[in-house]
Design brief:
Strand order of the largest sheet: 4-5-6-7-11-10
Structural class: alpha+beta
Keywords: ATP-binding, Kinase, Membrane, Nucleotide-binding, Transferase, Transmembrane, Transmembrane helix
GO molecular function, one term: ATP binding
CATH architecture of the largest domain: Orthogonal Bundle
CATH topology of the largest domain: Transferase(Phosphotransferase), domain 1
CATH superfamily of the largest domain: Transferase(Phosphotransferase) domain 1
Strand content: 15-25%
Radius of gyration: 36 Å
Shape: extended
Organism: Anaerostipes caccae (strain DSM 14662 / CCUG 47493 / JCM 13470 / NCIMB 13811 / L1-92)
Pfam families: DUF2628 (PF10947), Pkinase (PF00069), YARHG (PF13308)
Protein name: Kinase domain protein
Oligomer: single chain
Number of strands: 24
Amino acid sequence: MHHVEDLYLCEYCFAKLSGGEDVCPVCGFQKDTYEPEAGVLPAGEILAGKYLIGKMLGRGGFGVTYLGFDIPGKKKVAIKEYLPDGLAARQPGQTMISVYTGEKENLFKKGAERFFEEAKMVSRFNGNPNIVSVYEFFYENQTAYFVMEYLDGMDLKKYTAKNGGKLEVDEAVRIIEPIMDALTVVHSAGVLHRDISPDNIFLTNDNEVKLIDFGAARQVIGEQSKSLSIVLKQGFAPIEQYQTHGHFGPWSDIYALCAAFYFMITGKVPEAAMDRMELDQLMPPSAMGIEIPISLEQILMRGLSYKAADRPQSVIELKAGFMEALPKQEEEPGETPVYINPYSVQESSKEEPFTEEKTQESKGFLFDKNEDYYQREFSKIREGKRAGFHVPAFFLTFFWMFYRKMFLGGGIVLGFLIVFQVIAAGAAGTFAGSDASMIFMVLCCAAGLGAGILCGLMGNSFYYKYYEKVNLQAKIQGEQIYRKKSGVLTGAPMAGVMVGAFIVNGLFAVISSQVLGNLTNSYPSSSRAGTGNTGSSVSTTSQGDLHKAVVQDIRNQYYNDEEKGATVGQVFDLYFDNGRWDAVGTDSSSYHVTFQGQAYYANRLRSFQFEFAMEGQEMTCKKILIGGTEIASDKWSSLLKVIEMYYKGMSAKSVDAALNLMFVNQRVYTTLPEAQYLLRKSGLTYQMKTNRSGERKELSVAGGKASLRFYKTVRTMDTVPYGSYLLIVKDQKADATAFLTYCMGWSTSSATQFYSGTDRYRLSESGLKNKSETELMIMRNEIFARHYRKFEDPLLQAVFLTKNWYRAVYSDSQFKENWNDAEEYNLKLIVKVEEDLGYR
């Protein structure tokens, strides 16, 4: 029993006693027979002169957590002690710890520093309902401690076990949502948790969800000791945490958070990231019989992607995916959802401060309102102080928007700036010579003025909406109405932000215009060629400027003098990749200029070289080479016409124009780099997917308007080496001969069987496991083909049509299963192997 002023407390559980008990009626603690556990502080010890130590709440590889009692504050707390296994120990009967010597001592000190820094860092988030609060941190007993709020409840791991080993999806979402909100705050402060797992998500008896135990010390010890696989929590740590110099970011915590969600709904810990390196066989929850919306499962499995780049890159993106995927359900009267976050934008439980004349307000189209912020700022006016949220600075508007979670508004303004400046740069780039930088600067200044007006209008909008709202509250409460004084003048926020925007963007314009000026007069990254006279003279005092001027004069020529069409620069910039200009000469009377680049010509990506000569005032094209071979001058005209034709096709930014240049043919073929070049130069967007075995790549072009399928070659063909990706399927057109010959190495004989199965012969599992994903797919579908099924897939249809034993008779709706015993056995075996190899 411990006496604290007027309180009598059990030294073990801090239950309040009447004063005469020898045995605690709550926990059964009896001081006379008490023996502390090995290596921990005994109950009754006092730290920092004010924290009474009670029972041990938990012990891990990096420290001990005790129940504590804040004597001055008269409240329970949790106290965490840094005591990593293998680096330090506490001898029986001692309070001081003993640190091992040598390298372990250095490692202990580094971990202690990070442990202490973690406490200071977490204390920044005190007051957040979903992050455990840290009250104090200090050194004592040759180690570090920090004091946290005491949480009464259980961690997520125990909660899941208590509820049958797994939770319903909707309950799991409600639990994970507050943690997403907490991580959004943490990440916005530039901090990572690094140790999210069910052990570190705590559910209190008051229906709060808390994020606890940041993993700073754990990570630094693992990095220094080269024992990351030991200190990390297998199944919850992303692959980058196994790497000494892994690339960490919000995506690292997102992996761990999704792993915790996966554990909640399936009851299983995901496979460790290290085990997914060679063959990723992580099963989606639906494959285990879990009822989960498809879109929710997709965002979850994205979060669990082995590669960091494939995961959502922010918790905001992850939460949006979760919220959109979850079906919206109307609550029954009197029903209270579990674990609702009071700070969540979607389900805020905060009551508005106004009780009368309450106006109907939505969240707003351009920004989300933040009541507390404006209440604090306007309270300054009540005290006679100057409100500080109209300081004339451009960045302040973005501070308002992003710090106050007004992401849509901030994104609109930032996007407006970026788009305007890109347009400005593009417009300036169409002008040659020294005028380009001045034009760019003027346009950027105009962008600054436009952005300033937009920022100012938005600033005024939410500034004065809250001014009127606070006035309304004052009127209801019978207080003095605030007047527009002390800097709160009509138009002041707008004027201030406009000035700041104009100044900041103007400075950006001046600096970038100088850079642009240098770039436009230097050798461009890509260009093109032409013939004819420029009729211009070149005079300069600098040899380097003379080189630039000569190149610029050539680029400014009309590509086709007869039609007065696009300039050399315009055609080359669009058509050629990796372009490089070189100029050699000593004065303006004699110069040799060379352009080199890659472009699509005669159904192939080829290297080009154009050579020009300037003699006096006359410039002429002297030589053209393709792939190192010089083209005869009488062929130049037709060559340039073909380039012009390609240029106009790609300038049209047409899907059809780009697809018309791609071939699905055994003799005329298109490789993946060539297709990507054509799409990119045509200004078309596309998405690429790769199957699990890496032998197939699919491009989805322009929002799904066209699809291209490439397969890896297994033999060298002409200019295409082994392992290149060849276009086999373009929309509904497929070339079976090219596929079988170059990508599968199979015979094109009309009698060939792919899986060698008959009504008597049964396949072996070991033999099938040596097959590729595509081979197994073809073999499996041959069983259907032998029963005359039609295939919607253009490749399957084309492949089986090459065989004399195949007749396409039955559509999907007409097809009936009619297997013999061997076929049924083979079909099931192929499916099993596909599942075992992770292809299904």
